[in-house]
Amino acid sequence: MGKTRKNILITGASSGLGEEMARRFAAKGRNLGLCARREGRLETLREELLAANPGISVAIRGLDVTDHDAVAAVFGELRDELGGLDRVVVNAGLGKGAKIGSGRAEANLATARTNFIGALSQCEAALEIFRAQKYGHLVLVSSISADRGLPGAKAVYSASKAGVAALGEALAAELAKTDIVVTTLLPGFIATDMSSKAGDSSALTATLDEGVSAMVSAIEKEPRRAALPGLKWQGIDVALRFLPNELTNRLV
Ligand SMILES: NC(=O)c1ccc[n+]([C@@H]2O[C@H](COP(=O)([O-])OP(=O)(O)OC[C@H]3O[C@@H](n4cnc5c(N)ncnc54)[C@H](OP(=O)(O)O)[C@@H]3O)[C@@H](O)[C@H]2O)c1
After folding, report:
1. Active site residue 135
2. What residues does ligand 1 touch, defined as CB less than 6 Å away?
3. In this structure, which residue's CA is closest to atom 42 in ligand 1?
């Protein structure tokens, strides 16, 4: 830590948390590499960011994170275009799901491929770059749902996010004595397209502003693991991990 992470790659930057993180980091004067499948939305965002922050560079690429070879190629191109990568935020994610065994496996498979295999492809590509340059900050966007398997349509989503959290923990341990830092974020409910489609409890849902402020501030501090936003979600994180099932069943 210490040195400013100047060049930041964010996946899933075409909406929600990724798009808003891009705005926040741009306002801090950072250069950005932004990826998602909806390239038109990235073009609009790029124009907005450059108009508001004329001193920065913003490079964009259409990318499907389930295409392993494309992830490596695009990360390499963005590294070259920006002149190095200091931080990669593995944020792209999908919230589709259906009860397992209900004949709608495709939604679950798409979520598993995007959230876990896609995150793994992104870690492979980012760490190849970081290992070569001997430094970097890898940020994995998991979810509070990683703490407990969730029933029904959210089962695969929560399992995929538990996989991402385990990957982050493993890499943080492996790289502890190097200048490659690994942070796993576990957000609670934050208002985006994904949380509204999932029908998450509105009483618990943080605004996009509150959620992304907490994410950006945690990312800049570079801890190993952070549940957020606020004390409420830190408390829910502890409750989900340590209270007995009889009590947590009411929360999930
Ligand atoms: N909002 C919450 O309450 C919450 C809580 C915990 C964790 N999270 C996690 O936060 C991350 C962002 O979610 P969000 O709430 O901001 O949802 P969102 O608004 O639906 O954004 C998801 C982003 O991921 C991208 N994406 C999806 N599939 C992709 C693929 N195959 N390849 C490349 N990009 C893909 C989407 O872009 P394209 O469709 O353009 O590709 C979009 O930019 C996700 O990993 C999510 O699981 C969200």
Report:
1. no
2. 11-18, 36-38, 63-66, 91-94, 114, 118, 141, 143, 187, 189-190, 192-195
3. 12
Domains of the chain, residue spans: 7-248
Instruction: Identify any residues that bridge with 139 across adjacent strands, giving them in sequence order.
Output: 89, 183
Summarize pLDDT for 203-249 with one digit per residue, the tens: 899 999 999 999 999 999 999 999 999 999 999 999 999 998 888 77
Residue of 23, 74, 192 to mutate, ligand 1, most atoms within 8 A of C-beta? 192
Q: What separation in Å is there between the alpha carbon of 221 and the centre of ligand 1?
A: 23
Nearest to 219 by CA among 76, 16, 30, 43: 30
Q: Does domain 7-248 have CATH number 3.40.50.720?
A: yes
Mutate which of 64, 91, 106 for ligand 1 pocket (most atoms within 8 A of beta carbon): 91
Give 94-144 pLDDT, tens digit per residue.
999 999 999 999 999 999 999 999 999 999 999 999 999 999 999 999 999
